[in-house]
Amino acid sequence: MRDVDEDTTMVRAKALVKRFGGFEAVQGIDVEVRRGEAFGFLGPNGAGKSSTMRMIACVSPRSDGDLRILGLDPDTDGPRIRARLGVVPQQDNLDTELTVRQNLQVYARYFGLSRAQARAKAAELLEFAQLADRADDEVEPLSGGMKRRLTIARSLVNDPELLLLDEPTTGLDPQARHLLWDRLFRLKAQGVTLIVTTHYMDEAEQLCDRLVVMDGGRIVAEGSPAELISRYSTREVLELRFPPGEEAPLAAVADLAERVEVLPDRLLLYTAAGETALEQVHVRGIRPLSSLVRRSSLEDVFLHLTGRTLVD
């Protein structure tokens, strides 16, 4: 009999803690991931994202708190949970001595697929990952984007209900990132629940229905990207850049915005009307090296919550 919780919630954590000796990497967080959504953990390196993902993947036991995955307890039902998960680790761990196709076929056999089923599944996933033309190539010469797509394809051999992706596009060029995003959108459309960790703001905005912002092992904000931006930032941001070594005129512009962030190379003025603020900057005789009016983003949310940029 299926657990009612399993039908509506894929992951539920209450006061979840992970300790490494005296260091508490995850400090009592509450998380709920709903079936069919793309959920994100956003934060800088060391925020506790990967430690949380390893507990959800049933490869690292929790130190304290309650955790249920697919309605099951990972302490007692780890193998049953892992059989229904797909995991894309932060670093590709492909078998470089095998071909692209063999990587998929061999992995499929670990999940009990027959040789015929493994061949069919490999062919299906090669098409999905747009690697059919490289099926019989060795893995090592593949580009970073191709290796990442192959890693994701391999995580799908067991038709997982829940796919965990730890920093899926780190190190990829923009074209490879967008192609990877397209594959993930297709999976979500097929009903696969996604959990993504990232420190890329645009990635979180593109992929996630909901997300939490983590910092220092704690959750400091939760909501959809649009909700977080509305709650913690202004509609627009005026960026004023100044020459290296020149002191930014903070006092002269502080009254033009709801708040001002001082970064090493620029001032960020948070305001509902960026162009109006820029006009006033010029009226006051301030001449920045360059200026830009843009909409607020998740990076601005993170600056507000933690006082530093996301990519540390």
From TrEMBL:
Cite the GO molecular-function annotations of the record. ATP binding; ATP hydrolysis activity
Gene3D superfamilies given in the database record? P-loop containing nucleotide triphosphate hydrolases
**What keywords would UniProt list here?**
Antibiotic resistance, ATP-binding, Cell membrane, Membrane, Nucleotide-binding, Translocase, Transport
An example of a Gene Ontology cellular component annotation for this protein is: plasma membrane
List, for all copies, the residue spans of the domain called ABC transporter.
Answer: 11-241
Query: Topology versus the membrane, per the UniProt entry?
Result: Peripheral membrane protein
Provide the primary localization: membrane
Q: Which GO terms describe its biological process?
A: response to antibiotic
Q: Which PROSITE patterns match?
A: ABC_TRANSPORTER_1, ABC_TRANSPORTER_2
Compartment(s) of residence: Cell membrane
Q: Which PANTHER family match?
A: ABC TRANSPORTER ATP-BINDING PROTEIN, ABC TRANSPORTER ATP-BINDING PROTEIN NATA
The similarity annotation says:
Belongs to the ABC transporter superfamily.
What is the protein name stated in its UniProt record? ABC transporter ATP-binding protein
Q: What is the lineage of its organism?
A: Bacteria, Bacillati, Actinomycetota, Actinomycetes, Pseudonocardiales
